[in-house]
Amino acid sequence: MKHLLYLGGERLDAWLWDAGRLSGPASFAATRAGVDAFVDYLEHHHPGTPALLLVDIVEEDFQRLLLPHVGGKAGRNLMERRLLQQYRDTPYRQATIQGRSEEGRRDDIVLCSALTNPVLLLPWTDALELLKTPLAGIYSVPLLSEELVDRLGLDMEHEHLLVVTPQSAGVRQSYFHRGCLKFSRLTPSADREGVAVNAGVETARTQQFLVSVRLIERGEQLHAVMMAQDGELERWSAQCENGPETVYHFIPLGIAAGLAGVALPDEDTPLADPMFLYLLARTRPASHYMLGAEGRYYRLWQMRQTLKASSAAVAACALLWVGGNLWGYAEAQRDGERMNREAAGYDASYRANMSDMPPSLAPTANMKAAVTIERLLATQAPAPIDMMGMLSAALDKVPQVQVVRLDWRVAADSLPAPGPGAGLGAGRAGGAGSTEADAAPIPSRVLGIPSKPPQTLRVEAQVALMSNNARGILDSMNAFAQELARNPKLTVAIERTVLDISPGAKLSGSTAAAAGDKPAQFILNLSLAP
Fold this sequence. Notes:
Layout: E1 2-7, E2 11-18, E3 21-29, H1 32-44, E4 51-55, E5 60-67, H2 72-86, E6 93-100, E7 108-115, H3 122-130, E8 135-140, H4 141-152, E9 160-167, E10 170-177, E11 180-187, H5 199-212, E12 222-228, H6 230-239, E13 246-252, H7 253-259, H8 273-283, H9 296-355, H10 364-380, H11 385-397, E14 401-410, H12 420-430, E15 455-463, H13 470-485, E16 490-496, E17 520-528
Parallel strand pairs: 1-4, 4-8, 9-12, 12-13
Antiparallel strand pairs: 1-2, 2-3, 5-7, 6-7, 9-10, 10-11, 14-15, 15-17, 16-17
C-alpha cells in the first residue's frame, strides 16, 4: 500500500494505491486550512505508509547542455558543479545524459531540469515530516512521460514528437526527440476570463519556440499527439489543422491508457493524472529529484522492512531446523522400536532353539572365553616363521655362509617363575611313576596370551673354506651377523667365532687349509622382541 500524491499548482490530490488498484482522490487546497486537512487525512488514513509525490507545476525548468565527456568521479563532480551553477536556489535538480553529440569533440548531451520554486513543495513535505511519513521520492510528470511514450511506441514512429495531455494543473506539452525528453511546458487550460485555450494556437507557439532554440530546424515536421477524452478531442480537432510542418494525431485517453497497460479508476475521467499515477506506482523508478532530509524517514522505513524480512527469514530457518530435528527424532524413535522388536524376536528364537537342545556342560561364559583364547592363539601364538624369514634374507646377502643347525624356542627368561605346585609337578614329570596328567602346565605367556613372547634362535653355521684367507672367513661371519642386526627388533650375539682371536688364545700351525679340513663353523644367538 502507498500514498500517491499529485501536486498541481493550486492543490494536492491524495490517491491510495492498494493491491494494484488506484482509489481516490482526496483534494486539498494550497492554503493553511488545506495543509491542516491534509495532516488530518494522513493521521486517519494508513499512517506510516510510504508516499510518492508526483509534481506537475509551471515552475519546472528544462535546459539542454553540452558537457565534456568525462567519466568516473570527475564526471560526476563536473555535472554537480554545472547543476549548482544552473539552479542555485533550489535543492530539487537533476541531470540526465541523453547521448553524445555527433560533431566536434562528441560532448555529452545533458538534460538538466529543476523545480525552480521549492516553496510550493515546502508545506506538503513539512506535513509529511511532521507525521514521520516515509517519502519515497519526488517525481516529475514530464520526466515520467518518457515511460508513457516508450509504452505507446511513439518514439519509434516519429523523430519529432509533441505529446499533449490535459492535467489538473493545465495542458501539458512535452517535446521528445527520438524518444528523449527535451522540453516541456504547462499552460493553463483557460485564460483569465475562463475561456478554454486554443490547442492549435498553443501548439504553434510551442513549435515556434522549439525552432527558435534550434531543437527543430525549419521545414522539419512535428507530430503532435493529442490525448484526451472524446469531447475534448472533438474541440481540439476543430482547432488544429495539419500543415506542412505540423501533423496532429488524436488518441482517446482510454485507448492510450489501454495501450500503455494502465487501468484507469474512472473511464470517464477528463484528466491524465490517474494515468501518470498508475505508471508511477507500477514502474517505481528512482526519485527524479534528490531527497535530502525529507527522505530520512523512508530510509528508516526501508531498514525496518529489511530487518523484518531478515527476522522472518531467520524464523523460517529456525522452524525448518526444528522441524528437521523433530523429524529425525521421530525417525530415530521408529528405528529404535524396530530394533527392539527385532532383538526381542531374536531372543525368542534363541530361547526356542535352545529349549530343544540337551543341557550343555560348559557355561556360555566358558564358551565365549574359549573363542577369545582361540582368536588370541591364532593372532599372537609364537611361530618361527618371522625369524626364518630374517635368516633367509641374510643368507641371500652372504651366500658363502651355510646353516648347519637351528634351535628355535620361546625365551624362557621372560616367563613368570613357576609356583610350588608347578615345581612339584615338574619333579613328578621326571620320575618313573609320573603320568601325562601330572605334567606341569604350559604357561599362557608361551602361547602368546596376553601378548607375544620373546623368541630365540640358536644358529650353528659354517663358512666355506677360502685358501690362505682367514681374514675373508672372519669378514663373512661378521657380514652375516651385521645383515641380521639390520632388523630393528632382532638382537644378535656371537657365541663362537670361526677363529679364536682372543688375547689368551694360542696360535699354532699354518693358515693354509688342508685338503681334508672341515669348513670354519660359528654360532650366533638371535633374540626377537615381541
